[in-house]
User: Which sequence fits this backbone?
């Protein structure tokens, strides 16, 4: 059976997050995307430690739909190297898992 995933994507602001969330759901690349923020991310980029305010997207999808989500994020994201971390869901309510699979299926 198609594995449920939660995909984490950081974005620079709420507007970008909502735009990507809507696009992912409309493209059936994610069943639901939560937009959380703001948060502060600390990281090294171009050899320097940076601290930036960001928002975090949590996209609910499946392994079959993940390539669509990757393609959409890589095409639409403003960062040169966006964060795209797919984490397998160890357990979910059966009805919720079925809903996620239905929302991202190619048959919908």
Assistant:
């Amino acid at each position: 059976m198609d594995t449920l995933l939660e995909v984490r994507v950081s974005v620079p602001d709420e507007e970008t997050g909502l735009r990507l969330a809507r696009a992912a759901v409309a493209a059936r690349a994610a069943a639901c995307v939560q937009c959380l923020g703001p948060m502060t991310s600390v990281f090294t980029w171009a050899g320097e430690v940076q601290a930036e305010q960001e928002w975090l997207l949590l996209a609910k999808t499946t392994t079959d739909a993940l390539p669509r989500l990757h393609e959409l994020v890589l095409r639409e994201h403003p960062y040169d190297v966006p964060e795209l971390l797919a984490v397998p869901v160890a357990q979910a309510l059966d009805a919720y898992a079925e809903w996620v699979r239905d929302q991202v299926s190619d048959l919908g």
